[in-house]
Amino acid sequence: MKNFIAQFSRLFVGILFIISGLIKLNDPLGFSYKLEEYFSEPVFNMPLFVPYSLALALFLVILEVVLGVMLLIGYKSKLTIWSLLLLVVLFTFLTFYSAYFDVVKDCGCFGDALHLTPWQSFSKDLILLFFILILLYNQKYIKPLFSNTIQNILVLISIALCAFMGYWVLNHLPLKDFRPYKVGTNLKTAMEIPDNAPKSVVEMIFIYNVNGVEKEFTEKDLMSLPAGAKFVDRKDKVIVQGYQPPIHDFKLELDGNDNTQLIFSKEKSLLIVAYDLEKANTEALQKLNKLYKDASAKGYYVAIVTGSSTDVIAGVKKKYGFPFDFLFCDATALKTIERANPSFVVLHYGTIMQKLHYNDIDDLNL
């Protein structure tokens, strides 16, 4: 019976780690953005680690997959199980912190393929911890499936394949796009809210300074505020989350005017997405004037979509002599649309027809 439970735990933990790791390895930049949230001020306030978020993301997701493989084949079981235990304890701490303090809404455990609430993520990690503890106390049942030579080769192959996959998706696109902006999506339709959709229930929280201490009060408390209380701020607390369309933060502005619907009305559009022009690939930027000329000749409306400031936009326009429009959009939304900076999105009446990394500019179908 103990052997059966140990082998079930081995399969469950190993397969789950491989699946979770591969999903995040499919989009390591997305996972690195999630790590940046943890390193940011509202959470751990560790800005020193922000520049290393991508490297850490790659290390963690490759480690997840490789440890899963090592467990399934029984490679160095003691080292493997203890490594899994340390990793899941780290994840459990992060998900509990996120859930309890309500700071990170989605841990990114399964990337964009499956969104879990913080408490769901914490529960998932507790289940994993339970099965890993079973493995820890039943290590004698975790035997290697192959000879040492074959085991070593399999582990090295898994590391090499993961490293290659990480390199490929960073220099091209995720192999599978789980985001709401995937090819075939009509942006206008994806932004619509049905008439019968459930509405959010929001409670207003008022913050007052009372004798030098900031305290929170509900709307009902306002009639009985302490003497001398001074208003500081107001925030909205979501009690019940209503329906949110798949795309809810996409808005294109030109000179302060909303141009979103205008883009949707155009038969052919080529949007050059660069969430941060200062960090955009310079070689790709140098190719944009030729791209604009070729695309315009075929009837395309061409524009750069960016979250950069007006000063940065003016500097880039002057440096490269770009003749096309610069549309402003929230940088977080642009990071969700595509990971490359810049990347290319071809639209047909608001429907995404093609998305490409700047390394694949020659593959644009115009």
TrEMBL record:
Domain Methylamine utilisation protein MauE: 3-137
Keyword Transmembrane attached: yes
InterPro entries, A to Z: Methylamine_util_MauE
Biological processes per GO annotation: methylamine metabolic process
Transmembrane segments: 12-29, 49-72, 79-101, 121-138, 150-170
UniProt-annotated location(s): Membrane
Lipid bilayer topology: Multi-pass membrane protein
Keyword Transmembrane helix applies: yes
Entry GO CC: membrane
Protein name from the UniProt record: DoxX family protein
Upper lineage: Bacteria, Pseudomonadati, Bacteroidota, Flavobacteriia, Flavobacteriales
